[in-house]
Amino acid sequence: MSRVIAARHRRATDDPRWAKVLVIGSVMAFLALVLILPLVAVFAEAFRKGIGAALEAVGNPDALAAVKLTLITAAIAVPFNAVFGLCASWAIAKHDFWGKSFLITLIDLPFSVSPVVAGLIYVLVFGLQGWMGEWLLDNDLKIIFAVPGIVLATIFVTFPFVARELIPLMQEQGTSEEEAAVSMGASGLYTFWRVTAPNVRWGLLYGVLLCNARAMGEFGAVSVVSGHIRGLTNTMPLHVEILYNEYEFVGAFAVAALLCLLAVVTLVLKTALEVAQPDVRAGRGGH
Amino acid sequence: MTISIRSVEKKFGRYPALNKVDLEIADGELLALLGPSGSGKTTLLRTIAGLEFPDEGQVLFHGEDVTYASAADRRVGFVFQQYALFKHMTVAKNIAFGLDVRKGKDKPPKAEIAKRVEDLLKLVELEGLGQRYPSQLSGGQRQRVALSRALAVQPSVLLLDEPFGALDATVRKSLRRELRRVHDATGVTTIFVTHDQEEALELADRVAVLNQGRIEQIGTPDQVHDQPASAFVCGFVGEANSFQGEVKGGRFSAGVLTLPASGVPDGAATAYVRPHDFGLDDAGFEVRVERVHVQGALTSVNATTVDGRRIEISASRAEAPRFEGAVRVAARKAHVYAA
Amino acid sequence: MTAETAERRPQAKRPLFRRRSAIPGFGLTMGVTLTVLSLIVLIPLSAVVLKAAQQSPAEFWSVATSERALAAYRLTFGAAFIAALVNGVFGVLTAWALVRYDFPGKTVVNALVDLPFALPTAVAGIALATLYAPTGWIGQFLAPLGIQAAYNPVGVTIALIFIGLPFVVRTIEPVLRDAAEDVEEAAASLGASRFDTIVRVVLPALAPAWLTGFALAFARGVGEYGSVIFIAGNMPYKSEIAPLLIIIQLEQFEYARAATIAVVMLAVSFTMLLIINAIQAWSRRFA
Predict the structure, then answer these.
(1) pLDDT (tens digit per residue) in C186-236
(2) CB-CB: which of B65, B67, B71 is closest to A12?
(3) C215 and C276 Cβ atoms separated by less than 8 Å
(4) By C-alpha distance, which of A229, A218, A228, A231 is closest to A65?
(5) DSSP state of C240
(6) 10 Å Cβ neighbour count for B21?
(7) Quick one: DSSP state of residue C193?
(8) Which of B58, B70, B75 is the best mutation test for A, with the most CBs of A within 10 A?
(9) CA nearest C213: which of C91, C108, C93?
(10) Rg for chain A (alpha carbons), in Å?
(11) What span, in angstroms and rounded, lies between the C-alpha atoms of A240 and C119?
(12) How far apart are CA A58 and CA A70, in angstroms?
């Protein structure tokens, strides 16, 4: 049998070379077609009429207003969900109670709801014909077709990000360290800051990163509640839509390119975090 | 089937896992590969199975070179340490797998496969559990399924990697006897890996002791235990008191202790004395008895020599009352190795 | 808390639904969690159900099953199903390559897989629409073949493939990573070819994760809006997705009708959630 040495010198868990080449080749081709090409297309379209035109489109006052609104929205929604995520994971992971898995399912719920439905529910509550519509009108408060509605819709669609990152992480770490701290007389808050927080900070950062990307990029939910008022209630994705529908392609793609940069930065940070802290990603699925 | 291992070498990176290993295994033999973790025993077993390939040397089955033949072509039965049962298949499907995957005329008819599965379940005393899933079985039962799955293909050699490692002590003992019974019933050449010397000595026809990728000694359990070929074997197989000392003119001395050491060159040396090779002897040296406890028919004595060395003595139960205060003991037999 | 412990310590007050824990802060964090969850998610979601319930059952039924709505469901579910299938194939291959092979650019590929999570959907939408339009980089090659990708159901499917890919990859990947290789070695030592080992041993073990990933991708696809509307063409009865139908009803101030379609979509989302949970429970039987 020694004449077949070269052909057979393959471990039982290894695939033949041709299979490897085939799998890697088709994966690369598929990803290039589905993921890379759209990314390249955005930049190509943005710079179709040169860098100057692209920069001009981004520097337009309406575009700048959209950037500002997007930043404000994320600056409210992300910390809000981070605090909620910390509260929820502390209550769920560090304590035992009846109905725990049902509560986790409820927190995950916004991921299963269409963004359009997410926008619709706030229109039904705060809109002119909604539950609180008249009261809001009487008190001269505006939520729908205004910034508060945009923030609310953004909070809804990014609601589970931090919590679902922290709950499994805290569960994995168990309660013994906290119990040790409490048994030595530490207060709850002190225990949280000195014992729990250092253990979960990378997981928190990971959740915040994903939460932020979605908050800045949300389109469907925000589109329903925004009213598309230029310079006032347009976030960056909505601004992209308006420009695109008005056939101002360079402008649309220039703002889109800015959002692409956000996505690329998010992915780079995320990858760096996974390389530096492999535990944050350990054994968890998508979203 | 006879198996020959000829100067097999295998490195993992720069770490030598097997270092010029030679081993002949006779047809129908039950051989234990005994050694501490990292000694290369599992690598050797996997090399025989075709799950690892050596860098140098040859593996022969019945004189035929199979060094680089794939695992699938070797017809070996391999029982994995964690059993590696197929979780999504029933016990019966697991056992039938090796026959089910055969192609064309090699594949036995369905009824024959079913019959063979039934026979094997009977052999390992698992009748009636064929429709269970592995997750519904105890550790010992999973082990038996793994064993019968390996036997189903009528392997030319049965290889077991730490077959009892994951089981608790009582199950381990009964499965040990079971493996011996299955081996005697099937007559298949069997090699198993263990780090437990008691397991190797009780079960095997011959024991190969491995250390740092080398075979230190091959022999019957008696030979390995009573005539250890090296200091390592002496220390690893069976219990032994060890003494660091010096040999001069055929005598070993370490403080008050002197032992015959003919044939050992002068210089630093280590002496091993089995606890049962110490006995009361008025011509011996004095020790102070510290603790006496009974172990079944034997008595185990902890004592200290006048120069502070701790020794363990094993004596018969009848002698127990005589171990009190200061007594004189001598070694009936010792193994001395130059350092 | 069991009855047994309550008997042993008759003086201890029996907590309502929490088991005794040494770690403080349960009341506060649980209070915050439930309050925020109710205000942001549960109460607004109930608004949509109540709004739809204002109609008579017959009205509800006629809106929910109108010709136009049925066409929208068919497109939405059909495209989501096909996209999830495509992702099911390439998702497994991608996860396999990432876990089992080494190849240049693996880190980049790994990061890129999450692009659909990080890239705003509107950006993906305009990029795909531009690529697959008859004059676009890809569309120009498809047009001579008689294939029109953009502005019809094919375009919807393409957008949903983009959106769903990471769900399948990231669900299968950890399972594959944790899978013990000794099972494959066992199959090989029993005489199975590499092909038989993969088909009979590896893939069946991946089935629960694959189904979960498929269901997640499908559920996400059903609700997706931003990446689809630009490439869909949005022709009633032909390329109009269900979330868009909600927006159209909303723009015509037909709140009850919008809520009706939303309720149908929510029902589908919850069914998918139940199915995913059932798959997980089923797969734990074999663990």
Answers:
(1) 999 999 999 999 999 999 999 999 999 999 999 999 999 999 999 998 888
(2) B71
(3) yes
(4) A231
(5) -
(6) 23
(7) -
(8) B70
(9) C91
(10) 24
(11) 13
(12) 14
* Chain B residues touching C187 at Cβ < 8 A: 86, 97, 101
Does residue B14 share a domain with residue B90?
yes
> Would you say how long chain C is, in residues?
287
Mean pLDDT of B72-83: 92
Contact C212, C171 (CB under 8 A): yes
| C-alpha to C-alpha distance for A285 and C178, rounded to whole angstroms | 13
Residues B163 and B272 in one domain: no
Cα(C39)–Cα(A132) distance, integer angstroms? 13
Residue of A nearest to C136 (CA): A41
Residues B184 and B290 in one domain: no
Q: Tell me the three state secondary structure of residue B289.
A: strand
Provide the residue type at B85 as one letter.
L
Encode chain C (287 residues) as per-residue pLDDT tens digits: 344 444 444 455 555 555 567 788 888 999 999 999 999 999 999 999 999 999 999 999 999 999 999 999 999 999 999 999 999 999 999 999 999 999 999 999 999 999 999 999 999 999 999 999 988 999 999 988 888 888 889 999 999 999 999 999 999 999 999 888 899 999 999 999 999 999 999 999 999 999 999 999 999 999 999 999 999 988 888 899 999 999 999 989 899 999 999 999 999 988 988 898 888 888 888 77
Are residues B79 and B25 part of one domain? yes
* Tens digit of each residue's pLDDT (9 = 90 or more) over A217-251: 999 999 999 877 777 889 999 999 999 999 999 99
Alpha-carbon distance values, A102 to A108, A276, C190, C243 (Å): 10, 33, 44, 27
- For C192, the closest of B51, B89, B101 (CB atoms) is B101
- B-contacting chains (≥3 CB pairs under 8 Å): A, C
Question: What's the token pair of residue B194?
Answer: 């263990």
* B193, B168: one domain: yes
**Listed residues B234, B255, B275: the one ending a domain:** B234
Is the CB of residue C178 less than 8 Å away from at least one CB of chain B?
no
Confidence of residue A2 (pLDDT cuts 50, 70, 90): very low
CATH number of the domain encompassing residue B262: 2.40.50.140
pLDDT band at A1 (very low <50, low <70, confident <90, very high): very low
CB C117 within 8 A of CB C198: no
- Say if residues B164 and B114 touch (Cβ distance below 8 Å): no
- Whether residue B165 is found in the same domain as residue B16: yes
Where do we find the tokens 């101002």? Answer: A248
Instruction: Render pLDDT for B122-138 as a digit per residue (tens, 0 to 9).
Output: 988 899 999 999 999 99
Q: Which domain holds residue B280?
A: 240-338
Residues of C in contact with B50 (CB under 8 A): 188-189
Provide, as residue numbers in chain B, all residues whose Cβ is less than 8 Å from the Cβ of C193. 72, 101
| Co-location of B210 and B258 in the same domain | no
Kindly report the CATH number assigned to the domain that includes residue B176.
3.40.50.300
Q: How far apart are CA A127 and CA C152, in angstroms?
A: 33
A1: helix, strand or coil: coil
Give the angle subtended at the CA of B282 by the CAs of B281 and B283, to the nearest 5°: 90
- Selection from A227, A216, A215 nearest residue A255 by Cα: A216
Q: State how far the Cα of A226 lies from the Cα of A244, in Å rounded to an integer.
A: 17
- If you average pLDDT over residues B52-72, what whole number do you get? 91
The answer on B292 and B179 residing in a single domain is no
In whole angstroms, what is the distance from residue B312 CA to residue B303 CA?
A: 6
C-alpha span between B26 and B3 (Å, rounded): 7
Question: What is the pTM (predicted TM-score) of this model?
Answer: 0.87
Count of structural domains within chain B: 2
